[in-house]
Write a structure and sequence with these properties.
The protein has 351 residues and is α/β, with parallel strands linked by helices. The chain has a domain of 239 residues: Rossmann fold. The chain is 43% helix and 17% strand. The protein has 12 helices and 12 strands. Strands 3-2-1-4-5-6-10 form a 7-stranded parallel β-sheet, sandwiched between helices. A 3-stranded mixed β-sheet has the order 7-9-11. Strands 8-12 form a two-stranded parallel ribbon. It is globular. The termini are far apart. Bound molecules: nicotinamide-adenine-dinucleotide and 2'deoxy-thymidine-5'-diphospho-alpha-D-glucose. Nicotinamide-adenine-dinucleotide binds next to helix 1, helix 4, strand 5 and strand 7.
Length: 351
């Protein structure tokens, strides 16, 4: 279809802003609608370079407001949805689980209900693409990888809410024939990530000579993917993915936290002209995250074989680009770390 009208939710957030930019620039014939309520994690600064594009429109709305969502479907006649809006931080889900149920579960249902109503159960050329996470699969032991057939076993309120929304998307597919795709991705990193997540938080603290709070023994493993490679995978799955299928997306790039943190410190020493080892001296072991998943690792061979996707950016390259972006965008970082961030930081790290 040449002239799609795509609703992208959560487009002012980290991954969403990279997806919006890619679609706006790559598909001038599409109309891209970015729906976002602008929580602490949403930031229109992330999209300054494309906000004047003719095929782009920002819609400030809350996915928890069903009436508003229905009216936007009526007004803009979306033919597909790429759904990224969510509460996304595990630590915040531990202090306020209900907010995660509201946005991640009920918000997702509101969108699917609006899609069904507006599309009148005539689903030609329609798609509801739900962006999810590898955390729904729970935690791995030393060996093995998450495949699309791994059973769900979520351990945090965040991952339980994402697992629940995945189940509802599948259920709407089975019960109402809503055409859907789900993708479950590993840890993203890159420009524009809010500094509550490991990599940007540690970059910010290193710059400011503040302690680097490592949870537990630091031997937890994550599989890191550069955010632009995730956006490319979403583009491929959206256009070429099989409906009613799930795709796992990952970086083939496992790191124990403490090893990643040492690499980050080394690069930061070089960039900031510090003596070797100076940034690593900020490492401080702190109380562990409750229910902390030991290891995540994705088997991304299905999307590779079926759609030809693989990550193009190496971790070393991606980390350099990410650090450079944060060092060059000090105002962005200063703006998002003023005000409420300070309260959040104090509560989270003085437990
Ligand atoms: P983020 O927290 O950076 O951005 C979330 C965006 O959603 C923000 O712009 C926020 O304002 C918006 N939003 C939140 N609640 C809303 C509501 N009620 N109505 C409208 N908008 C709302 O998140 P992210 O890291 O970019 O993650 C995006 C999606 O990708 C999420 O669904 C997340 O579960 C998933 N995901 C993230 C990662 C990761 O490593 N960050 C990995 C896999 C999957
Ligand atoms: O796996 C995909 C998920 O990755 C996404 O679904 C989530 O939205 C995203 O937040 C991320 O979840 P994690 O919990 O893995 O990411 P986070 O950056 O919070 O933590 C990464 C690892 O670093 C984890 O083992 C906890 C640890 N950590 C994190 C913080 C914020 C610390 O040791 N200290 C910290 O201060």
């Amino acid at each position: 279809m040449e002239n799609r009208r795509i609703l992208i939710t959560g487009g002012a957030g980290f991954i969403g802003s990279h997806v919006v930019r890619l679609f706006v620039n790559k598909y001038p014939a599409y109309n891209i609608y970015n729906l976002d309520v602008l929580t602490y994690a949403g930031n229109l600064e992330n999209l300054r370079d494309i906000e004047e594009a003719e095929n782009y429109k920002f819609l400030k709305a809350d996915i928890n407001d069903a009436v508003k969502i229905d009216s936007l479907f009526e007004e803009y006649k979306f033919d597909s949805v790429i759904h990224l809006a969510a509460e996304s931080h595990v630590d915040r889900s531990i202090t306020d689980p209900l907010a995660f149920v509201k946005t991640n579960v009920i918000g997702t249902l509101n969108l699917m209900n609006a899609a069904r109503k507006f599309w009148k159960d005539n689903f030609n050329d329609k798609l509801f693409y739900h962006i999810s996470t590898d955390e729904v699969y729970g935690s791995l032991g030393k060996a093995g990888l998450f495949t699309e057939n791994t059973s769900y076993d979520p351990n945090s309120p965040y991952s339980a809410s994402k697992a629940s929304s995945d189940h509802f998307v599948r259920a709407y597919g089975e019960t109402y024939s809503l055409p859907y795709i789900i993708s479950n991705c590993s840890n993203n990193y890159g420009p524009n990530q809010f500094p509550e997540k490991l990599i940007p938080l540690f970059i910010h603290n290193i710059v400011n000579n503040k302690p680097l709070p490592v949870y537990g023994d630091g031997r937890y493993t994550r599989d890191w993917l550069f955010v632009k490679n995730h956006a490319e995978a979403i583009d491929l799955a959206f256009h070429k993915g099989q409906h009613k299928e799930t795709y796992n997306i990952g970086g083939f790039n496992e790191w124990q936290n403490i090893d990643l943190i040492h690499l980050l410190c080394q690069i930061m020493d070089r960039k900031l002209n510090r003596k070797e080892g100076e940034s690593a001296r900020l490492i401080t072991y702190v109380k562990d995250r409750p229910g902390h998943d030991k290891r995540y690792a994705i088997d991304a061979s299905k999307i590779n074989k079926e759609l030809g996707w693989k990550p193009s950016v190496t971790f070393e390259e991606g980390l350099e680009k990410t650090i450079d972006w944060y060092l060059e965008n000090k105002t962005w970082l200063d703006n998002v770390t003023s005000g409420n961030y300070k309260d959040y930081y104090k509560k989270q790290y003085s437990r």
